[in-house]
Structures are given as structure tokens and as C-alpha cells.
Amino acid sequence: MLKTNQIYQKLKNNPVILNYKNRRQLITMEMKSLNQKGINCNNCQGNCCTFQSNSMQIDPLETFEIIKFLEENRKIDHKFEDMLKQNIEEFRLNSFQYIRKTYTCPFFNHTHNGCLIGKYHKPYGCLAFNPTEKVIDKGSTCRSKQSILKNRNKIFNKSEQAFIQQIKKEIALSWDKLPIPLALLDMIQKISNCPRKL
Description:
By secondary structure, this protein is mainly α. 47% of the residues lie in helices and 4% in strands. It has one domain (6-190). It is globular and about 50 Å long.
């Protein structure tokens, strides 16, 4: 769906996008360290992804990375867009969209380790939200290690913000952060409607 779009092609080959694994390395190393201590999400039902706890908002860079993952896995079609619209409607994310609301992530598949997005394309906040103790099942003691997120941000903020400004200009985005389904739907529609020539 997006592969013929020259703006999408240009953005997906940006050095910031090509550096997606390195930009998540501090977080994934922390996850690996916790896992070696037996602290992981393996037995959890995933409340952090549901309306019980989830209010994740993502920026244009994180949104684009999810779109790139979906495009590479041939997941973007009209059915996918309808699913996003249904999720937005179910959790009323369109009304007062700048007020943070809880919602069930459209990528949560209601199983253990239930996210459909690969770890190197997940939003930083999702990756960094980890258990603090062994054998959790409802995630009631999970939290983000803010020091790792801050360190990651210090290293990559300048290049990431430059990409965010570029993508906002290229496809006329007017937002800085939105809930996952709203951000994805808006960006997919804007990329799809961009002229084919730059």
C-alpha cells in the first residue's frame, strides 16, 4: 500500500530509521538483564496493554517505525485501517484526543507475550515498562526505569527530533503525541495521500 509512495521511501531510508536497533539498545539490554534474573513478562496476562492500565502515546518517529514494521510484514490494508477505526471508536479516543485516556492496544492479542509488534519497532515506553519482581501474572508492580529512558533520550534526542520535524513537514502532521491507533491511522492516511513526486 505504501511502497509506491516516494515520500514513504525517502523517510524509511533516513539514517535515524535505519538506526532503529541501536536507539533501543539500552532498553533491550535492561530487559535482557532482568530476564537473566528471572524477571520477565512470560507469565503475565498483559494488563499493561489493556484499558485497565494502558494510556500509551507515541510520537511521529515511533509511529513511523511501527508503520515500517507493518509495511514490511504486509499488514497494512483496508481491513487494518478498519480495525484501527474500530479501536478508536470503542475507546472514544477521538473525543478530547489531547486528554490522555486508557485503551486496549490494537496490537495486544490477549496472550502471554501478546504484542504483535517486534521489539525493535516498539515504542520506547512499551519496551521500558518491565516487571520489578519474579513470576508476575497481573503486572501490578511493573514500571519504567526512567534513568534508562533519560539516558537513551540524551544520546538520540537531537537526531530523533530532526527526523520528527522532517516527517511533520513532509506529510503535514499537526500533533506531537497521540494514542497508538490514532497516530497510526492519521499517519497512514497522510502518507497514502501524499503526492507521488517530491
